[in-house]
Write a structure and sequence with these properties.
about 700 residues, alpha/beta, eight-stranded mixed sheet, about 30% helix, about 20% strand
C-alpha cells in the first residue's frame, strides 16, 4: 500500500504521510543518500513502528518529518512530507516552530541530553506549556503537576524542584513524555525512547505512552531496533535498510511471517528464538556505503537468497492483497530464479550446531564472601562523610571454572560495582574476593600484578575503552607491553594472532578505532582482554550498545572462545534473552544483594523471588503479544543511602505479608536454588501467575525464522 493510498476511515488525510522522500547529506566525498525513496504513512490513532539497524535511516527520517535537521547540512531532493495536511517543505521557520509542540511532539533516546541540566524540572515544564498555551504561571504549574501524576511519578512537588541529574533515567524519560503530551499533540514521534532503560522502567514507559496516545487519539511513529517491543506496542511496522523501506505490513504479518530476507535475518539473529548456547544465525558484512550504494537490491551482498535478478533495483512488491509489501524479487511469482534462490538461501542460513559443552568440574575459581562496598557522600565541616551509598550489602557468590554466571538486575542494584570489586578496581568496605584461593585485597602489590593477568574485563562501550590515538595492534597488545615488556615486533605478531582468533582481518590492525564498526571495536576489546591468556573474563554489558545482528556475532564469538580456550565468564547484563542464551547460572541482584541464585533454566522458566518474577514479567516477548501494562513495582528503587531495616523489596512487592518486616537471608529452595524470601514456597506457580497477567496471544516458537 502506497502512502498516498492510506486514508483514515473518515476519509481525512493521514496525520503523517511521507511520499517518495529523498534526502542527501553533502560531503567532500560525495552526497550521502541517507533517505532514498521512503514512503511512510501513520493513520489517525495508530502506533507505527520503524525498525532497522544503525545507519538504516530511521532517525533521519523521524527528524525530517518535523524538519529538525540543520538546513545547511542536508538537502531534500525529492518527494513530499505532509503532517496533519500541511506541506512541511513549504512552511517557514516560524510556522515550523508553531507546529512543533502544538501539533507534533518528539521524545528522544537520551533524556539527559534532551533536558536542560541547568534548569529545574518545573521551570522546563512550565516553559514548554506557556510557550504553546496562553496560561498563567500558576496554571502552568498545576498543569505540570497533573502531567507528572499522569506519568505515575510519586511526589511530583519534589520532582518539580529537582534538576535532571537528581533523577533516575526512567524518571527523566517519563518527564520527557509528560513534556511531549503537555500540549496534547496530534502526532508523537518517539526515537528509541526506552533503549537505555531497564526492562521494568521500559514496561512502565511503554504502557504510559500507549495509554496517553489512546486517551488523546495521538498518532505515534515509534522508532526502535527492539523487535519484541514492536510486537507488544505497534499496530503496523516499516522495516528500513540502507535508506530504504524494505518491508511493511501489520505487526503480526511482518514479525511472524516476514517476507524480505533482511527482516528474516534480523529475527533469526535474536537469542530469544534460538537454542541456548548454540550459534545464532548472523548477517555477514556491513551496511553499504550510501555515497555510492550498489546497483540493484542494497541487501544483495549480505543476502543468502541473492541471485542474478537482484542486480536490478526491486520495487515494493505486494505480498498479498492486504497492503503488506516487501522490496524483494522473491515476491514476484513470475521470477524464473525464485525457487532455486529460495532453496539456496535455506541451505546457507543454517549454522552448524556446536557440540554440547559439559561444564568443567575444575572446582571454584572465584569466591565472594559477604562483600560490602560503601561510597562516602559529601562531608561536614570536619571532613567526615555526611552519608554513605551502600552499593553492595553482603554479596556471597561462587564462580566455578568453565561456567558462565550471569548477573542481572535494575540499574543501581550493584552489578557493575560487583564487577569492579572482582577486578580489584574498587576496595571493598568489608568481605573478601578470593580468586584461585587468594584474597585479592590482601595481596602484596607484586603478587597482585602477577595474579591479575588471569582475570580481565570487557566494558560496555568499546569506543570509550579504546585509545583513539593508538593503532589497533598497539591497543590489543598494550597489556603485553606492561606485563612482559615485549618488543614491538613480537607484539605485532601476537596482535595478528589475536585478531584472527576474534575474527578481525590482520591487515586492518594498523587502523585506528574510529575506522571500525561498533561490533568490530567490541572484537578488538575482547582480543585485548585475551592478550594475557586469562582464566576469567568479566563482561560488563558487552552487547547492550550493539544492533541485534552484531550482537549475534559477538555472542557467537564468546561461546566459541569459551569452548576453545576454557574461559570462565562473569556476564553482567539486563537483557534476559541474552542471559537465557549464554548463561549456565544466574544471580539476580536487588539493592546490592543477591535475591535469587540458580541455574539459568530454573530462574528464567520458574522464578521464585517476587522481584525476579516482576523482572521477567516486564520483558517484552516476540513469541507472544500481550496487552502492555506497567510493571507491578510500587514506586522507585529505594534510596541506598538509608537501607531499609526490613526485606529490601518489601515496599514494592505485591506479595508482602507478615514476616517481611524482618531482614531476609538466602534460603535453599526445594530444587536447590537460593532465594532471599521467606514466602517463596507460598507464592502461586509461575505458570499460573503468567496466565493471570494481561491477555496475550501465543505465537509458535520460532515462527519468525522462516519464510
Amino acid at each position: 500500500m502506497e502512502a498516498s493510498d492510506m486514508m483514515n476511515l473518515s476519509g481525512i488525510e493521514a496525520p503523517i504521510q511521507l511520499s517518495d522522500l529523498r534526502l542527501e547529506f553533502p560531503t567532500y566525498g560525495g552526497a550521502v543518500k541517507a533517505i532514498d525513496g521512503v514512503s511512510i504513512t501513520v493513520g489517525k490513532g495508530e502506533i507505527v513502528g520503524l525498525v532497522g539497524e544503525s545507519g538504516s535511516g530511521k532517525s533521519v527520517t523521524a527528524m525530517s518529518i518535523i524538519r529538525l535537521l540543520p538546513p545547511d547540512s542536508q538537502r531534500i531532493v525529492g518527494g513530499s512530507i505532509s503532517v496533519l495536511g500541511r506541506d512541511m517543505l513549504q512552511l517557514s521557520e516560524g510556522e515550523l516552530q508553531s507546529v512543533r509542540g502544538d501539533d507534533v511532539a518528539m521524545v528522544f533516546q537520551e533524556p539527559m541530553n534532551a533536558l536542560n541540566p541547568t534548569m529545574r524540572i518545573g521551570d522546563q515544564l512550565r516553559q514548554v506549556i506557556r510557550r504553546h498555551q496562553k496560561v498563567s504561571e500558576a496554571e502552568a504549574t498545576a498543569r505540570a503537576l497533573e502531567l507528572l501524576r499522569d506519568m505515575r511519578i510519586g511526589d511530583p512537588d519534589r520532582v518539580l524542584r529537582n534538576y535532571p541529574f537528581e533523577l533516575s533515567g526512567g524518571m527523566r524519560q517519563r518527564i520527557l513524555l509528560a513534556m511531549a503530551f503537555s500540549c496534547r499533540p496530534d502526532v508523537l514521534i518517539a526515537d528509541e525512547p526506552t533503549t537505555a532503560l531497564d526492562v521494568t522502567i521500559q514496561a512502565q514507559v511503554l504502557a504510559l505512552m500507549q495509554q496517553k496516545a489512546r486517551e488523546t487519539g495521538s498518532s505515534v511513529l515509534f522508532i526502535t531496533h527492539d523487535m519484541a517491543v514492536v510486537a507488544q506496542l505497534c499496530d503496523r511496522v516499516y522495516v528500513m535498510y540502507a535508506g530504504q523501506v524494505v518491508e511493511q505490513g501489520t505487526t503480526e504479518e511482518v514479525l511472524y511471517t516476514p517476507q524480505h530476507p533482511y527482516t528474516q535475518a534480523l529475527l533469526r539473529s535474536l537469542p530469544e528464538l534460538a537454542e541456548p548456547q548454540q550459534p545464532l544465525p548472523t548477517i555477514q558484512g556491513l551496511v553499504p556505503n550510501l555515497i555510492d550504494p550498489p546497483a540493484g537490491c542494497r541487501f544483495r551482498e549480505r543476502c543468502h537468497f541473492a541471485h542474478q535478478r537482484c542486480h536490478e533495483m526491486p520495487e515494493m512488491l505486494a505480498a498479498d492483497g492486504t497492503g503488506r509489501a516487501a522490496r524483494c524479487w522473491l515476491l514476484d511469482p513470475t521470477n524464473p530464479e525464485r525457487e532455486a534462490a529460495l532453496e539456496q538461501g535455506r541451505q546457507a542460513q543454517r549454522p552448524d550446531p556446536l557440540p554440547r559443552a559439559e561444564l568443567q568440574s575444575g572446582g571454584t575459581l572465584l569466591e565472594i564472601q559477604n562483600l560490602e562496598v560503601r561510597f562516602p557522600v559529601g562531608a561536614d565541616w570536619r571532613g567526615r562523610p555526611k552519608a554513605f551509598v551502600h552499593a553492595l550489602n553482603g554479596v556471597d557468590l561462587e564462580l566455578r571454572r568453565g561456567e558462565t554466571l550471569a548477573i542481572v538486575g535494575e540499574s543501581g542494584c550493584g552489578k557493575s560495582t560487583l564487577g569492579q570489586s572482582i577486578m580489584g578496581l574498587l576496595t571493598p568496605t568489608a568481605g573478601k574476593v578470593v580468586f584461585s584461593g587468594k584474597d585479592l585485597h590482601n595481596l602484596p602489590p607484586q603478587q597482585m600484578r602477577e595474579l591479575r593477568r588471569r582475570f580481565q574485563v570487557v566494558f560496555q562501550d568499546p569506543q570509550s575503552s579504546l585509545n583513539p590515538r593508538m593503532p589497533v595492534w598497539k591497543a590489543i597488545t598494550e597489556p603485553l607491553l606492561v606485563a612482559e615488556k615485549l618488543p614491538a615486533r613480537a607484539r605485532r605478531e601476537r596482535a595478528s594472532e589475536l585478531g584472527r582468533q576474534v575474527g578481525l582481518n590482520p591487515d586492518h590492525l594498523e587502523r585506528y578505532p574510529h575506522e571500525f564498526s561498533g561490533g568490530q571495536r567490541q572484537r578488538i576489546a575482547i582480543a585485548r582482554a585475551l592478550a594475557l591468556q586469562p582464566d576469567l573474563l568479566v563482561l560488563d554489558e558487552p552487547t547492550s550498545a550493539l544492533d541485534v545482528s552484531v550482537q549475534a556475532q559477538i555472542l557467537n564469538l564468546l561461546l566459541r572462545l569459551k569452548r576453545e580456550l576454557g574461559l570462565t565468564y562473569l556476564f553482567i547484563t539486563h537483557d534476559v534473552s541474552v542471559v537465557r542464551h549464554v548463561a549456565d547460572r544466574v544471580a539476580v541482584m536487588y539493592l546490592g544483594q543477591v535475591v535469587e541464585l540458580g541455574s539459568a533454566p530454573e530462574i528464567i522458566e520458574a522464578p521464585q523471588h517476587p522481584y525476579t518474577r516482576t523482572l521477567l514479567r516486564s520483558v517484552p516477548e516476540l513469541s507472544r503479544r500481550r496487552e502492555l501494562a506497567p510493571a507491578d513495582l510500587q514506586g522507585e528503587l529505594p534510596n541506598n543511602t538509608r537501607l531499609p531495616d526490613t526485606c529490601f523489596f518489601r515496599d514494592r512487592c505485591r506479595y508482602a505479608a507478615s514476616g517481611c518486616e524482618q531482614l531476609q537471608s538466602l534460603t535453599t529452595a526445594s530444587d536447590g536454588r537460593l532465594v532471599r524470601c521467606h514466602r517463596h514456597a507460598l507464592l502461586p506457580p509461575w505458570s499460573v501467575e503468567q496466565s493471570s497477567d494481561a491477555s496475550h496471544e501465543e505465537r509458535p516458537a520460532g515462527s519468525a525464522a522462516g519464510r
